[in-house]
Amino acid sequence: TVRVKDGNGGTATDADGKFVIQAPNNQAVLVFSYVGYQQVERAIKGNTLLNITLKGDPQSLEEVVVVGYGAVKRGDLTGSVGTVNVEDLNKAPVKSFDDALAGRVAGVQVASPDGQPGASPNIVIRGGNSITQDNSPLYVIDGFPIENYNNNSLNPSDIESIQVLKDASATAIYGSRGANGVILITTRRGTEGAPTITYDGYYGVQQSLSRAKLMDPYEFVKLQLEYDPINATNLYLKNGQTLESYRDTPGLDWQSELLRIAPMQSHNLALRGGSKGTRYSASGSILDQDGTIIASGFRRYQGRFTLDQDVNTHLKVGLNANYSNFTSYGTPVAGSGNSDLALLTSLYGYRPINGGNDLTTLLNAEQDAEVVSSTNYQWNPRLTAENELRNRITNQLTANGYADYGFGSNFRLRITGGINRSVLRYETFNNSSTRTGNLNNVQGFNGVNGSIVFTELNNYVNENTLTYNKMVGKHRINSVTGFTLQGNRTALSGGGAVLVPNESLGINGLADGTPYTITSYQGQNTLMSFLERVNYSYNSRYLLTASFRADGSSRFAKGQKWGYFPSGSVAWHISQEDFMKGFKPVSDAKIRVSYGVTGNNRVGDYASFSTLGLNVGDSYSPGGVFIRGASPLALGNANLRWESTAEADLGVDLGFLNQRITLTADLY
After folding, report:
1. Could you give the angle at the alpha carbon of 106 between the alpha carbons of 103 and 108, nearest 5°?
2. Could you give the CA distance from residue 152 to residue 326 in angstroms, rounded to a whole number?
3. pTM for this model (two decimals)
4. Which are the contacts of 47, defined by CB distance < 8 A and separation ≥ 6?
5. What gap in Å lies between CA 530 and CA 482, rounded to an integer?
6. Whole-angstrom Cα distance, residue 134 to residue 124?
7. SS3 668
C-alpha cells in the first residue's frame, strides 16, 4: 500500500510494483507498507523510479486478539482474555462449539444438564457472578452482541476464532451484559483469490461408556423379601421357587433396552474467494445425530453467506447472514419437579424380573405391578421413550451489515445493524401408553393429550463507533467512542387438548379433544448505551486501558434505569526492559493489574411494575350479568435496579524458549 504522509487516501501497487498516486508537490513523502513488514517513508524529490525494500516486522506478525469493539496484539493486552484453538476444537465431532469448549480455556466451566442431543450446556466464566439471576455469558457474533443465543444455529466449521473475555477490564465495555463474561466469535469470510471449494465431513457412532451396576434377579428378590416379606413371598416364591432359584436366572437389563449405539454424521461444504475489492463466502451444512437413548436425536440444516466490498479507499461495506433449521426430539432424561418423573429414575428403579419369570410380559407392561401408583410415578422406561412425543423445532435467522468509513489519517467511523429472529415450535403428545396419557395411572387423568406452543424471539441491534488511532514516536493511542441501541421482543402462544379420542392421529388429532391450557404472552425490552475506551502504549512496554459505559434499560423504573460501569487496567511488559535481555530462556514476560465494574439487568421485562390479571376466579355475576374483575398478579418493585459486580485481577503472562511454552496465571 502506498499513501502520502499526512494526507488522505492511498493506492496499491500492481504485480510489477507500479502505481499512480496524486501528491501535492515534489517534496511530498510517500509511505510504503505491507502486512508483516516495517513501513518505509521516502521523499519523492522529483523521482519517478523508487527502489523500496521492506524489512520483516516480527511484532506485526504477532497474534491479534479480538476484544470488545476492536482488536489488539496479544502482547499489548492488559486484561484477561483466553483464546480457543479453533483448529483443535473442530477435530471434536460435536454439533456446536460449546460442546467442545470444556477444558480449553482456564476459568471456563462447561456442564451439560442433559445428555440429549440438542441440549445446550451451561457455560459459566469464573464462577457465578449473579446472586439470583442468569449466569450465562454474553455472545458476540461478528461484532453483534446477542443475549440468549442458541449455539446450535452456528456451524463449528464456520468459526474463524473464539476469544473469551474474563476480567472486568475486558468485559466492562459491554456494560450490563458483561458481568458473566463475554465470548467473542469471529466467523470465516471470503478472501482475495480464486474461488475455493472445500468439503469436510465425518461419520461415527456414539454409546454410553459408563453404565450403572444394577441388581441382578437374585439380589433384587433378596431385597424385596427383606423389605416386604409377605407380598414378595407371594410374588416370587411360588410354584416351588426359592431365593436360590434366582441366583442364575437371567434378568431384564433395562439399560440395554433404553440405550443404544447411535450413529452421527456431519457434512460441510463451503465456497470462498474474491477479487481485490470484493470478497465472498457461502457455506452449508447438514448434521444428523441419533441419541444414545432410543427415539431421540438432533438434526440441523444450516447455511451462511458473507460479502465484503471495498467501495473505495475510504469506504468498506459488508453483510453476513446465517439461517438454520434444527430439530431436537426425544424425552428429556431429566424431569421437572418431582424426580420420580425423570426417565432415568424409572430406568434405574424398574425391577429386572417378575414373579412368573416372563421377561416379555415385564418388557411390555406399562407399569410395575408392585408399585403403588398413588405414591410412585415410575413407568416402563422403554414405553416412555418410544411413545412420548417431544419435538423442539427451531428456525433461526441472523443477519447483519456494516459500513466502515475512514477519514483523515486517524479516524474510522463504523455503523452496524443486525437482527436475530428465532421461532421455536414445541410439540408434545402423550398417547395411552405413556405415564400422563393412560387413564389407569394417577397422572393420566387427562387421558390422551398434547399441546403445541410457539415462541418467537426477535432481537435487533444498532452500534455506531468512532475509532481514533495515533502514533507519535514510541507513543501509541487508540480510542473508541460509541453509541448503541438494542431491543428484544418475545411472543408466546399455544394451546393443548385432553381426552383426545383418536390417538392414532398423534399431534394432528388435538382438534378432536377437549381444549386445555391456552397460553399467550408478549414482552419487550430496550437498551440504550454510551461507551468509551482508551488504550495507551509506550513502546509496547507500558500499557494502560481505561473504559466507561453507561447503560439505560427499560426493565427498571424511572430513576433506576441507568447503570454506569467503569474499568481500568495497566500492564508492564517486563521482557521489553534492558535488564531482561540476558534471560534468554524467558522470551516474554508481562504483569497485568485490572479493576472494573460490570452490570446485570437480566430480570423480567416488567419486574419493576405491578401487573394485573383478568382471572375467571375473580369474577362475579350481580343480577345474572357476568362481570370479570382484575386482580394483582405480581407486586412491582420501583426500587429494583442494576445488579453490579466489581472484580479485581492480578495476572502474569510468561513465555519460554521463543514462545514454545507459555504460561498465564490470574488471581482474581
Report:
1. 70
2. 8
3. 0.84
4. none
5. 6
6. 10
7. coil
